[in-house]
Design goal:
By secondary structure, the protein is of the alpha+beta class. Strands 3, 4, 5, 6, 7 and 8 form a six-stranded antiparallel β-sheet that branches. It is elongated, with a radius of gyration of 42 Å. It is 28% helix and 21% strand. It comes from Pseudomonas hamedanensis. This is Flp pilus assembly protein CpaB. Residues 58-118 form the SAF domain. Residues 287-299 have a biased composition (Low complexity).
Length: 313
């Protein structure tokens, strides 16, 4: 009896061992489940970042292909691109350019601004119709030691040496309160408030400032009625540019539309003397005429080129 029970238990244990071994073998052959990263949150994060970045970009109208001059633009010629930083003065919508005619040839990829549709250069757009832009040669002394900037106002002084055509050395303000348009290759703003020079990065700005300090030319905005006066002054004597104070707010008044009145210009012209009469003191009398008390004879002016002399008959 005991032997039969023992054999039955042994057989039962054997079957259990076989079953457990088979089940373990089956489980060992199944691949372990791989933990999958949640894809949905990552995709949502990328979309959020893209939307936020798109909102910070600025729209710029660019040309899709070359456009010849004097050809009206159509919707097929332009497209809107979004840039991290829009160029200064660029147009942002297609409606601003459709139907407008460029005055010069424009290449594909060009971003459009108001200058694309205006004739003339930047300097011509920095003055009004009653002004002229005149370049004056300067050096470190004439140009205020290189400290002039576009937008400053200066008085033009003239110094005359004593010579045969000028009896005594003299100095005077030839033209007062002229606006500085540019110094060297650095220019200010056009009349529409846009920079006349292209935008520069920090390194290029430093190089431009260095060239400005060493500049040998200054461009001045001269009222048309005083243009010939300044031109004559540049040929007969030594010029100096005297910087006026910013407290006068002349640039602010200019942008507000206040210009010199015709009366002021006429007053400035009425003070224009012949350069032989600019001496600080009057012409000296000769001893013979002073002793005799005879009335002085009128002098006759003789002009030879840009030289002016006086002779008494």
């Amino acid at each position: 009896m005991n032997s039969r029970i023992t054999m039955g238990l042994a057989a039962l244990l054997l079957l259990g061992a076989v079953f457990v071994g088979y089940w373990g073998l089956v489980l060992s052959r199944q691949p372990a489940p791989v933990a999958e990263a949640p894809a949905a949150p990552a995709v949502a994060l990328e979309k959020t970042v893209a939307i936020a970045e798109d909102q910070t970009r600025q729209a710029v109208v660019v040309l899709l292909h070359d456009v010849p001059p004097f050809t009206p633009l159509t919707a097929a010629d332009v497209a809107v691109e979004k840039l991290r930083s829009a160029p200064a003065g660029s147009l942002a919508s297609v409606e601003q350019v459709i139907g407008r005619t460029p005055w010069r040839h424009l290449r594909a990829g060009t971003w459009l601004n108001e200058e694309s549709f205006q004739a003339g250069g930047a300097l011509a757009r920095m003055i009004h119709s009653d002004e002229r832009a005149l370049t004056v040669a300067v050096d470190e002394v004439i140009g205020a030691a290189g400290q002039l900037l576009p937008g400053d106002y200066v008085d033009v002084l003239l110094y005359l040496r004593e010579d045969a055509s000028n009896l005594q050395q003299s100095a005077q303000i030839v033209v007062p309160a002229l606006r500085v348009l540019g110094v060297g290759d650095q220019y200010g703003l056009t009349n529409d408030g846009q920079p006349a020079s292209p935008a520069l990065n920090a390194e290029e700005k430093i190089k431009q400032d260095q060239r400005r300090v060493a500049a040998r030319t200054v461009v001045l905005a001269v009222p048309e009625k005083l243009l010939s006066r300044l031109m004559l002054a540049t040929q007969v004597g030594t010029l100096r540019l005297a910087v006026r104070s910013s407290e006068e707010q002349r640039l602010a008044k200019y942008w507000a539309g206040e210009n010199q009145s015709p009366a002021q210009l006429e007053k400035a012209n009425s003070q224009l003397f012949q350069f032989t009469q600019l001496a600080l003191a009057g012409a000296q009398k000769t001893p013979s005429s002073a002793a005799s008390g005879a009335a002085p004879r009128p002098a006759v002016e003789i002009i030879r080129g840009n030289q002016l002399s006086q002779q008494t008959p």
